[in-house]
Amino acid sequence: MIVTIIGTGLIGGSFALSLKDSGFASEIIGVDNSELHLKIALEKRIIDKALPLEEAIAKCNVVIIAIPVDSTVEIIPAVLDKVTNQTVIDVGSTKHAIFAIAKAHKNGSRFVATHPIWGTEYSGPDAAISGGMKNRITVICNPELSDPDAVATVETLYRSLGMRIVYQDAQSHDLHAAYVSHISHLTSFALALAVLDKEKEEEQIFQLAGGGFESTVRLAKSNPDTWVPIFKENRSNVLDVLNDQIHYLKQMKKLIEMEEYETLHKLLEQANDIKRILK
Amino acid sequence: MIVTIIGTGLIGGSFALSLKDSGFASEIIGVDNSELHLKIALEKRIIDKALPLEEAIAKCNVVIIAIPVDSTVEIIPAVLDKVTNQTVIDVGSTKHAIFAIAKAHKNGSRFVATHPIWGTEYSGPDAAISGGMKNRITVICNPELSDPDAVATVETLYRSLGMRIVYQDAQSHDLHAAYVSHISHLTSFALALAVLDKEKEEEQIFQLAGGGFESTVRLAKSNPDTWVPIFKENRSNVLDVLNDQIHYLKQMKKLIEMEEYETLHKLLEQANDIKRILK
């Protein structure tokens, strides 16, 4: 298959490398607004060639859109305008708005909304790696609303990467993603901000930062260009989970203020139930 | 050296195994209120023998107190009462109250307050491992207030484990620990509670949980018996950092509510400065 990748950053670049290595892609065409990213992607042989959007679509079998979710919403009509029998997917972290705009297009049945649950806190083509998605989960949204051959192509693509496919409707996806992914990023950003503030008074504050700090704060290195659009596109679910998070932190604060340690103990035992999920 | 370990759980058990392997300890004596922990520790050869507190102290060179920080505060006078030339350390996550009570004792100069920055989200002697502390940091508080030979023994002990020693006063330690460790646990507990609540409506919510979720939420598996006493002993610093954390989450919430995405972008860029610390 010839694969066009729109957006040659961390995610697009990792798809390019992985699909070449898996044998799914015989050729990778890169499309990017950033001349610098294209240059790096070519130099590092992440893509075989760079072409303008229209030409790239005409020459390929599969289009992967791997740009921030708000830009994905914007570009989808222009991409679908140029499609004949190509399969088009996006790989963004929110699905509802993307799915709605694609399905409203006359070529919408060629589009399959997907979300591979993978990423790192780094960004750009230099951060692209091969094989990182192996054994991870990928979501395919509402496959019944796409052409069966397009869905089959996408399933083959993800299986070639060793990913496990989960089918969800776009709306449930966005709710679930807010609770198990988006809020983790917001709390990480907030933790980083709190401790960076304190560093202004206490220069040595990071001297004691251990494994717990690193694991809860590393997501604060994530790219705002990726994440602000995710919070924007998933605004109402993100506000809900932020409310829940603030509620529980306030409850803990109150219990510590009032020195109600037995109730706090019960609350933390309740949180321990997460052991059911995280082995 | 003969080492008595009070508390044969995750931390005490890991000290026992590591100090035997490093050659620092020729014999490990275990003291524990829990008959079950002692039985497991003996069966798994984590300790060589179990003795009552008084006898254990009389027969050893070094005492390591590895029990929850509030119990440490309580037991210190009874331990120091029985000390002649033994060196006594604690390994708890808060230092100010422990340090104050030890230094008020007539044998207080035999006591060295320490905090090895290491742990896992598991607990009990079954979770004990050897060598986990290698290359980690350990804090020794106010060494000038302990006997030089006691400090030297403790330095030798930690160096035998491959740890890097940092010297801090007890009060700074507690402030720093609140910001780079204690708050990470509180936010993890809160994240777990929020998503466990949502699971009651959305059974499949954990289907999408990826690496970011796991790393920010794994601390919610931590033992409330350990952590409630830490929040209690470090109450005022923990309340400060909880306030900071709630402040930033509320600010993010407000920016998303008002759709002020440019300001949100700037805030997240500010958080990205954590890259200076976490490489």
List keywords for this structure.
279 residues; 11 helices; 6-phosphogluconate dehydrogenase C-terminal fold; alpha/beta; homodimer; 8 strands; globular; Rossmann fold; eight-stranded mixed beta sheet
CATH topology of the largest domain in chain A: Rossmann fold
Shape of chain A: globular
Q: Assign a percent range to the helix content of chain A.
A: 40-55%
The pLDDT mean of chain A sits at 96
Number of helices of chain A: 11
CATH superfamily caption of the largest domain in chain A: NAD(P)-binding Rossmann-like Domain
Strand proportion of chain A? 5-15%
- Name the quaternary structure: homodimer
Please identify the structural class of chain A as seen in this structure.
alpha/beta
Largest sheet of chain A: 8 strands, mixed
Radius of gyration of chain A: 21 Å
For the record, what CATH class of the largest domain in chain A applies?
Alpha Beta
From the coordinates shown, what is the CATH architecture of the largest domain in chain A?
3-Layer(aba) Sandwich
Strand order of the largest sheet of chain A: 3-2-1-4-5-6-7-8
Order of helices and strands of chain A: EHEHEHEHEHEEHEHHHHH
Number of domains of chain A: 2
Topology readout:
Two copies of one chain form a homodimer.
Chain A (H helix, E strand, L loop, with lengths): L1 E5 L3 H13 L4 E5 L3 H9 L5 E2 L2 H6 L3 E4 L3 H13 L5 E4 L5 H8 L7 E6 L20 E5 L6 H13 L3 E5 L1 H30 L11 H7 L6 H10 L1 H23 L3 H11 L8
Parallel strand pairs in A: 1-2, 1-4, 2-3, 4-5, 5-6, 7-8
Antiparallel strand pairs in A: 6-7
